[in-house]
Amino acid sequence: MVATAFLSALLLGDGLGVNLVLVALPAALAAFFEARRAGRLPRPWTLTWAIGGLALLAVPALRDAGWPAFLAVVSATALGSLALHGGRSWLGVLAGSVGVLDSVIPGVGWGWRGMRDRASGARARWGAAVRTTLVAVVLLVVFGTLFAGADAAFADLLGAIVPDVSVGDGPWRVLLFLAGLAGALAAAYTAAAPIPWDRVSVPPGRARGRAEWALPLIVLDVLFAAFIALQLVVLLGGAEKVLAETGLTPAEYARQGFWQLLWATVLTLVVIALALRWAPRGGPKDRLLVRGVLGTLCTLTLVVVLSALRRMDLYVDAFGLTRLRISVAAVELWLGVVLVLIILAGLFGARYLPRAVAAAAAVGVLAFGLMSPDGMIAQQNVQRYADDDSADRSIDIDYLRDLSADAAPALDKLPEPERSCALLRIQSEVTLSEEPWYATSWSEARARDLLTAHPATTEGVDCDAVAGRSEYAERDGYEHAPEEEGSYDPY
Known about the structure:
The chain is mostly helical. The chain has 21 helices and no strands. The protein has helices spanning 2-11, 19-37, 44-56, 58-62, 66-85, 90-96, 104-119, 123-150, 152-161, 170-192, 210-246, 250-277, 284-319, 323-348, 353-370, 373-387, 397-400, 408-411, 418-432, 442-453, 463-467. The two termini are 46 Å apart. The model is unreliable at 469-491 (pLDDT under 50).
């Protein structure tokens, strides 16, 4: 735990990268030792959550974009807490994923009592440990300084490895030390004495009669079936007729429907959860009715998910990929996975459903971070620009130059002066950055090497003119006149 605190103070003050893994490893070891001391043995799901949490911390080490890294860190914390608590039921999984936060204050008191008990009667041993540590530190500082002065290469190596700690950073480093110590104590305390959330029973709702329960859901199934039938008509060649009757362009038709279908998917999951709570439970016929009605609803909703993803695909083809579009498409895809898991639970039993949904969410966040969304956005827009043979082709440089260093390899393929205008901000950040190796992502290092070999230059170029700034967002599919108030839609 003390090692975790020192590493937090030394490494986390410069940014996020591989230092998160270096801090998490000793904290995980402390929790493992305390769990074993308390008689707890690692189970397959415990190891799954622990390994998944550590894997999620690789996202900040690989990617420069802050938004996928934030999701990965939050998800890693939730998986780590779940590994410490365990959990099989819905309440166990949900409460276990945030339960470590409830152990922060008790963990500090527990750690203080443990240190006090161990120190009593062993003052000589503690004095020897302190003296040994001080002697080792003095020897390292003295001889390290001499060797650094004797060889410039060794001095550079030492400077790259050893964290740069200044006196001005003292309060910030102390705060990081205390935060790391409190986090490690909370993890170890939770591992030694987790809250058994699975023992808390949630009573089911009052069972309804078959007709009262099934009739509204059957009506909803019919509505879904009618909507899907219309989608099949459009897909099989009736798109021109539908667009002519609605007066919409293909892009407007695709954009208009996606958000409604996304909300329809979310609300359907709520309906399924409430329907299961009040479902009839009289015998085999009731179970067959519940499986038939809800299974049909899940299957139809899955088709709605595919329709929503298809609409987003059409819209992206027309106007390009953005962070918002790739994010909501990823959420819709995950909702589709949840529906598949619900269908499988209806066929084979729901024992593993809560943990399967949590695992699917963690895998989704990990895949989202590793696939580099900023890189995909840049790649898709650059490819659209390259494939456009029209005389008035354009690319939204104003949007692309706000992407992270993950996008540098794709933006490097643009012709000049678009390339330099898109990469200038990234170049200034990665080449002037003084972040140490443990706080630098792989994407930043790659972008630095790329732009050092082939720098971006805007001498004699007006990047604002190249970006083609306007008072409305053409990338969002809206070409209203600038004077129309309220015409801009951020989606």
